[in-house]
Amino acid sequence: MKKLKIAVIDTALNIESLPKKIQNKVELKNYFNCNNTALHSSMVINTLLKYTDANLIEKIYLYNIFGKDNKGSGIAVISALESIIIKNDIDFLIMSMTLTNKDRYKYIEKLCNKITSLGITIIAADSNKFTENKCYPFSFDCVYGVSQGMFSENPFFYTVDIKKKHIIGDATPEFVYCGNNTYFLFGGTSKAVPKFLAAIINDFSKEKEINCEKIEEWVKNNSLSAEDNTILCLKENYSVPSYSTEIYDTLCRYIDECSIDIRKYGEISPSFHLEKLESHDLVVFIVYIMERFNIKSSLDDIRYTDFVNLGSLCAYIGGQL
What is the residue range of 249's domain? Predict the structure, then answer.
């Protein structure tokens, strides 16, 4: 298969947050010339690279549509889409963001229809929260709209309605490497979008040609079932599972010795929710605890659902020992 060109409409980027092997393949169009420390686009691109081979990618065009106030600009989205149409040299467009402005809905839908008529596949995120206004471009029939689910098997998606291109992807939070020995917890539909694209790229990696018709057929034939969506497991894991009191007592001792004082986030108990921790603190804490218990698990392999609270962390540790 030819090497792919991908457009990403998202935030600005600190290029050092990406692997060196991909840095020279990224071209940034920064409409606001600001905030090159933003992490969202880094996590989107690094999630894609986590699940597919960077050698399959020839170019990534990144369009920053977020201003200094960290709010997305509909005008910048329009400029990005118009630029993509003029260039007409990409295979995929991904947008891990949503818009709700009713005034621009029709025109942006027209642009997206034009892009897909050029043979470009668009994948966009659904909102993670309820919104009174219809969010888009997720809702456009020409766009593969990704809602949140939870899947543990490849290719990590279920097709709800192929005519409307509505799918449910794997939104399970997981740790994503963002350069300089740092990991960040990344989940929701923003993560599900690049993971869905990675599944497509992987299955077409040996094909000489890739087009919208072949991708649609692939989506039809490779969808998991509705029963594979275990999104309820995330909520169920918030209850405290069975765990060893010996492991819990040892964990509490290690908590006292850790450089990250998680007690500042609340009273320590088996039901203590680890989501209270800031992303950096959570990474440092988990790495420290794994090392103290001599567990070799890599952050690349750990899903947040394994340890949403201290009780489930103890159960996870018990399963690894």
Answer: 237-320
